[in-house]
Amino acid sequence: MPIETRPVDGSVAREVVGRRLWEPLGDQTIDELRALWAHHPVLVFRRQALSEDELADFSALFGPLERTVRTDWASPVRPEVGLISNLKDAQARPIGGLGDGEIQWHSDQSYMLNPATGALLYALELPPEGGATLWVDLSAAYAGLPDRLKRAVEGRRAIFSYVKRLAGYQGVDRVISEDAKRKTPPIVHPLVHTHPVTGRQALYLDSTTTIGIDGMDDASGAALLDELYEFATRPEFVYQHHWQVGDVLLWDNGFTMHRREPFDPAARRLMKRTTIFLSRERHIVPEGSLAAAA
Ligand code: SIN
Questions:
Q1: Tell me: the pLDDT tens digits for 229-250?
Q2: H helices of 213-263, where?
Q3: Atom number in ligand 1 closest to CA 103
Q4: Ligand 1 centroid to residue 13 C-alpha, Å
């Protein structure tokens, strides 16, 4: 049976209706989901009830799972599953990462040479208010850019630094292992990519990690990035998701950024996430190079 979908809000997100992700989906359904994902970077599945193995198995339909450099956020049960939560264990240690604060517009893994650009978030416990997550469609943003900005980004590469990302985190999330430091040197990625399925061009951005533009002086690079972030995050390109328990959101970081609103630290929020290596045949996957030493 073909998948049934409905619009959520604009074209950024699309809801897939009536599928139980813990059941085998069949090749036709998986192909349809892959095709849908090329056109809508955020896919929404409501009312799911998944074990960590089921979550990982569903995610792996789209590509191999990444164990991210944040091994401290990994589930002790299934390490490919990360815990995004403000909850603490009996010794008052965080059980996962990203706490309760605001998280600015970013693209997961942008600081990696070969980013795993697929991501999935599954909501298990939610605060009564706050904690919404917003996505911006960077292909729609690129299409809307004035010609002057399109010319300014053509052939340009931005410099992405995990050190900048860490500085924006709260508390212990700022601390990473020596192995994680070694795996996250400053790198460059092209600012513009073409989607291999739709042929649409898209910006590749991350306000929490970009520190400049390769080959531009600091002030000019910062000014161009500021202008791009201001333009790309206009409300017409943004989808805001108000979570319900049981929601699963699958998104493509190759042509989106997302941000999270803060919530009351005294409230409980528990999300489980996976990170997926997507193929260059079907997705925008930036190919990074090491940034030149300053
Ligand atoms: C993230 O930025 O990956 C987490 C988003 C969220 O907690 O809603």
A1: 999 999 999 999 999 999 999 9
A2: 218-232
A3: 2
A4: 16
CA distances in angstroms from 248 to 52, 197, 245, 269, 272, listed in the order given? 13, 24, 9, 15, 9
Nearest atom within ligand 1 for CA of residue 132: 8
Residue 294 confidence class, pLDDT cut points 50, 70, 90: low
Best mutation site among 85, 98, 170, 173 for ligand 1, i.e. most ligand atoms within 8 A of its Cβ?
98
Longest dimension (CA), the chain: 56
- CA 274 – CA 254 distance, rounded (Å): 15
What is the rounded distance in angstroms from the CA atom of residue 96 to the CA atom of residue 77? 13
Specify the higher pLDDT residue, 10 or 106: 106
What CA–CA distances, in Å, run from 190 to 143, 154, 160, 201?
17, 9, 11, 12
Token pair in block for residue 172: 């212990």
| Residue that has been written with the tokens 């998948």 in this structure | 3
* 121 alpha carbon – ligand 1 mean position (Å): 8
Ligand 1 neighbour 258 (Cβ under 6 A): yes
Q: What is the pLDDT of residue 292?
A: 83
- For a mutational test of ligand 1's pocket, the pick from 126, 133, 239, i.e. the residue with the most ligand atoms closer than 8 A to its C-beta, is 133
Nearest-angstrom CA–CA distance, 225 and 205? 9
Average pLDDT over every residue of 1-30: 93
Which DSSP state fits 129? S
pTM across the whole model: 0.95
